[in-house]
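ok so for the tutorial part 2 we go from a plain amino acid sequence to predicted structure tokens. step 1 is just haveing the sequence, like this:
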Amino acid sequence: MKVKELTPTQSFQKVKELLKTKTKLTKKNFVPGSLLMYFYDAKDKKQTYDRTPLVLILKNGPRHTLGLNFHWLPIKMRLKLIQAIFRLNKDNIAKQKPLEFRYIILKPMLKKLGYAPCIRLYINSRISSNGAIVPPERLVEIASLKSETFTQGRYSAEQLYSMARRKKN
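step 2 — the prediction. this is what the tokens look like for a chain of 169 residues:
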């Protein structure tokens, strides 16, 4: 999967365009397989976090949402993961249906292949009710943008991924 790398300005414009389609997010948007971009205000401000996560919803409960935040991965890894997701969801994408993604089945694969650092737990009350629903057919385009907004501004996705991998070992 080859994607043209955009400049930061071009990436910003694409994200701005996506966020123009922002909608009021409700509980029904947080079903496994949904792709969402929203604003997040973490409880612990001392930790680095992504203020605008691009999340594939894995599980949703009354207090927390478990999601796969593409921003915590280097772009090459994002694209490999998307290829695997698309292979598993060929029919749904063709029919413009939501992705089917069963975390319990894919968890061992994600862990084994080094994707564990992008699995994040979000506190529902700290997720903004405004966000954007990303259609599956735009995931490659949106995930290949440098649209992460990590707090503390010191780190890139590549650096944070590397640091998270070291912590896990």
